[in-house]
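Key idea: predict the complex, not the pieces.
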Amino acid sequence: MMNTIEELKASIIEQFGTPCGVIDLDVVERNIKRAQELCDTAGVANRPHIKTHKSTLLARMQMDAGAIGITCQKLGEAEVMADAGITDIIIATNILGAAKSGKLSALQKRLPLKVCADNPVTLQAYAKAAKAAQRPLDVLVECDTGQKRAGVETPEQALKLAEIIKQDPDLDFAGWLFYPPLNGWQHTQEFYNKVSAGLADLDLEAGIVSTGGTPNFTHIGKLEGATEHRAGTCIFNDRMMIDVGFASVSDCAYQVFTSVVSRAGETRGILDAGSKTLTADTGGLAGYGYILEHPAARIHKFAEEHGFLDLQDCNDKPAVGDIVRVIPNHVCVSVNMLDQLVTVRNNEIVDAIPVSARGMLV
Amino acid sequence: MMNTIEELKASIIEQFGTPCGVIDLDVVERNIKRAQELCDTAGVANRPHIKTHKSTLLARMQMDAGAIGITCQKLGEAEVMADAGITDIIIATNILGAAKSGKLSALQKRLPLKVCADNPVTLQAYAKAAKAAQRPLDVLVECDTGQKRAGVETPEQALKLAEIIKQDPDLDFAGWLFYPPLNGWQHTQEFYNKVSAGLADLDLEAGIVSTGGTPNFTHIGKLEGATEHRAGTCIFNDRMMIDVGFASVSDCAYQVFTSVVSRAGETRGILDAGSKTLTADTGGLAGYGYILEHPAARIHKFAEEHGFLDLQDCNDKPAVGDIVRVIPNHVCVSVNMLDQLVTVRNNEIVDAIPVSARGMLV
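Result:
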């Protein structure tokens, strides 16, 4: 039997207090299943990015639903996930520096990792770490096709890195890592076709061709040659995913339960969740977060522990002590500030789970 | 003998890796001393806000330098600070809800707290918690004089709350909490004069009249009747404090050491510190953070673990593997995402200290 949302709010305020990061496991499971099905239908493997949840429990749920492995953004995240028994891991960033090299080496000794690079300096560091681990590292070359973040900008540069990898006995070429812009899949295809042709000349094969991003599920499978997709946000969704049309409010598994703690003005109020809970990251949207109970209320400003409510357009204004649920603009950055998530099902508290891989320095 | 900054960078990359939150203890001590002297000169007591550093060690340093107590923004922060032996604490927020009431009660049993309220609902919760603790709670009434955050907007409302406190055997009236806007000190004085006159009629006295904010050090002492000041950011300073003219670059004790991990374009680069380290909170400034080694470089965008460098105006462009130091726009929100801070002196690593009071849910 399903509890009411009021009963859940009473339990949260009784057992935890606000602000409180809450995830609905039914919605989480539905979201995991949806991402897996989107990948299955497109004929690419699913390698979720765990940066969104940083939870070993949720990573295991993704694996159990059919994921072939996971993607991490930090070496420290990979360590935590490896400790939890997950063995197929891509670390999707350039890993540099002595302390990290030592850690990388130690982890590579335990299990064969897949790492990424977009420059020769990183490749040198990888070769050194692999040699120390006495096990060659699988390296993907990160390619930029318009996002202008990490990633080489031309097929020629990509192939040059592949060649360096080929010549290094401590490195194995594993494939290509792409993050196509939403409107850049055609360009990504052209880029991919060129590097594929070049690979044949090098007598190499790309075991992995990875695309990324939750909004990119719209285009999944469009890149001919892609073998897998890595997406993070889709496990929880957020206001940005509603905005791009990927999710509806009911697909948002993560909500911050927060109390109205002040109503000092007729048309304004204060929540006990501010930028240290909901994040100042607007994701390009106006205002911060969507309030389920008062969709017309606007969170227009933050102090660190206070959300500033504009209630002008709100007919039914909340009172001091009311608990409201907020879907943040960008869930990944919000979860990153919490040490635990409260899990619920049918509006009943199930557990509190640690955000195990948060706070990793490197 | 002083190490070079290059030696410090080498130690950081060797022992910790990047990104790494680093504080220079000499600068911290100088900043603590400066805040104390500003208060001493103005004839008001110093009650630093620990939301910036959340470290029991740094709170103790502030106490040793002359602070009469501390300010916390969350009950959980107060618990951690009380465990560390700090006994004079103002919690500067409305504390509501059963779980928090229970915690408040337990803490109030251990030491007499000072709490804040701007509405009768909160006062009821406080009375209940105090009764359970069998020790009356000292309550400050929070007054808003223009910031439009928490705080009653009129002297009449403030006095009404003082009267409710007076009539409740479990509550003691402790004074007024102000956060004057930079240009609102005159209005704050008028507000204060009115509530002071009204207090006499109620036969009450304000033991504490608190002003707040690091930028407000410019006006410290201007409020006739003020007894103490609470400021947080001044212990570290940041780009916002440089912008308002309170600090110079050399007053910024907190710097994020971060590596250039990608230089895929001629005029761009990628840092391994993004919104999960430096915070998306712009503080109203253009760009995110000031790079000491490359003042002309702009951090114009963030991914979660990547800072996007615009190097157009940079003659001496950094290379992959270079370590640079970034002063974030808003230090409080950056520190809040880290589990530890590396302390240094004379460019030598001293220790790594926990951000003990971070991650407190309530």
